[in-house]
Specification:
Chain lengths: ~200, ~200
């Protein structure tokens, strides 16, 4: 497929097949994209940060790491990553997080609202939205456990590629929160490549 | 109420009212207890590690911190804590985690299985079990993101007290995994106190 664009502060839902590779590109740099993945055959199976941290034995996920489901199955494998800095600790920004963190700013439905709308046609209800795998999101943790949301370290054209380990419903956004994106809202690009032919 | 005992490698489910204080005690020391909390009026609302990390701005939760729900409501407030070392990164141990981490040992249903059985009467299905708040669990994170499961630092009689911020269904275990509990399986004690009278 050609490269598709997710407009600033919006989101999309689509299906990919086992073995296909999803590439998510930060075209301008310093833009976060929240990624969700559900088992296309049963959307009650979904990515889980806790299962992933447990099996991968790290919170710093990059090439070679897998994203696991709540049912302990691998859903995605990171096969390429030009950034190496993502977040799987925090939940998608939402109306409630805008009211909490940006009381002076207009409320936005955020990634949570965008994902809920994009995934509703697949039978995903809002309460079935867990922590997203937040691509390019930069959340340093201090030695005392305190966390910060810094601007992404991704530059223009940086990308991450994830191979589907089962047929998946994907939710993907161009993130809407101020701190996560260095204060401005940019698009996200993505494409889906067929699995490489066996040698 | 008097102090109740959770037998080693088992779990319980029970209801507490808004304002009541749940005290969870490690009677012998070095024993983890996985805690889940659901809105008693609608069990689709449940504790969320991501929302909690976001609003509390830390992964090191102790006295004064709140445990937030997937709907951005505070569910529990930590009002006392003699340990100060808990985990909210990892999911409950399960048959799958036993097969993964302890292939030489008999498979156990783990905290996940114990919670699923204990919470089924309240309408909680296994897929509705998220990351638990793992009391006394000791998960250091290195500066490169790698995590380890160490023995708890809790000693005999150490405890944590959590005030309910809404009517809650609680799931609570004496954890079943080897590494989490220093290699041996001990009981957990708990009680529920009425809210203090207004002055």
């Amino acid at each position: 497929m050609t490269v598709a664009e997710i407009l600033p502060r919006s989101g999309v839902g689509f299906q990919i097949q086992q073995g296909q590779v999803l590439r998510v590109i930060d075209p301008e740099g310093a833009q976060v994209s929240d990624l969700l993945a559900y088992n296309a055959a049963d959307v009650r199976e979904v990515i889980s940060n806790g299962r992933t941290f447990d099996y991968e034995e790290t919170i710093a996920l990059t090439t070679g790491n897998r994203i696991w489901s709540n049912r302990s199955n691998p859903m995605l494998t990171i096969v390429e990553d030009t950034v190496g800095r993502h977040d799987f600790l925090l939940t998608p920004c939402s109306e409630a997080t805008f009211r909490h963190f940006y009381p002076e700013q207009p409320v936005h439905r955020g990634c949570f609202g965008n994902l809920a709308v994009a995934l509703a046609p697949y039978g995903v209800e809002p309460d079935m939205i867990p922590c997203a795998f937040n691509l390019f999101m930069n959340v340093p943790i201090a030695s005392n456990g305190r966390l910060r949301v810094d601007s992404p370290v991704s530059g223009p054209g940086d990308y991450i590629c994830l191979r589907a380990e089962m047929d998946l419903i994907i939710g993907l956004t161009a993130c809407s929160a101020y701190a996560s994106n260095g204060g401005s809202f940019k698009p996200i690009h993505y494409d889906v490549a067929e699995a490489p032919m066996p040698a």
